[in-house]
Amino acid sequence: MQILAEINGNINVIGYGLAAIGPAIGIGFLVGKALEGMARQPEATSVLRTNMFLGIAFTEALALIGLVAGFLFT
Question: Can you give the pTM of this predicted structure?
Fold first, then answer.
């Protein structure tokens, strides 16, 4: 039985690693598009930066929820 517990633990870690890819890709797109918008319209930099940081916070919350859910359901 101990072998099965070790296998399940390893599978959970791999599952969380795969689940963290989504928010990472989302943050990459978000920052890239914000920088593109800042380059196109420098006068809108402050608004774009604020919205970028809000988007990063919400996207990162998804990864943290996934981490907590991994601990709760194991």
Answer: 0.69
